[in-house]
Amino acid sequence: MTLARTSIAGMLCIAASALPLLAQDAGSEGRVVGETLFATIDTSNRGTIHAGDLEAFRDAVFAGMDTNGDRRVPYAEFVAWDPGFARVAEAAGRLDHYTTASRVVFAFWDRDGNGEMSEPEMRFAMTHDFRRADLDNDTVLSLDEFLTGFPIMVAMRAAIRPDL
Predict the structure, then answer these.
(1) Torsion sign over Cα 72, 12, 149, 52
(2) For 74, phi and psi rounded to 5 degrees?
(3) pLDDT at 86 (0 to 100)
(4) Element (H or E) spanning 110, and its range?
(5) pLDDT at 11
């Protein structure tokens, strides 16, 4: 197993370990998944994510998604990598909404529209998403900025709990 796959396996274990704690409503369950992702990205435990943190996470996630190692991620590989949002959506009876949101995110990240996301496409998308979420322009994301402004988090929240 490569280092990237080992790292991604560790991240999945961290995210999965949070799932038993999800005993409240879908909004708080989704938040726990988001907070777990934030903590996974914030490897220095500073309480913020900087661009380097996100880059390392992105590289590990891409390697984890790319199950056949061809350096391309079609939608099936993209959606198979899930830190827990699908389970939360299913419990909330909103799996169809989650699927739609994941397809929208994938379409935005697959910039050339060829049905496969490349590493440069994912890098571009996540860099752009980071900048979009950094509302105070301090070059780091707080937990609040990540949960309420990072586009994939916004999409999952809207799919799972649109009333929040």
Answers:
(1) negative
(2) -75, 170
(3) 93
(4) none
(5) 42
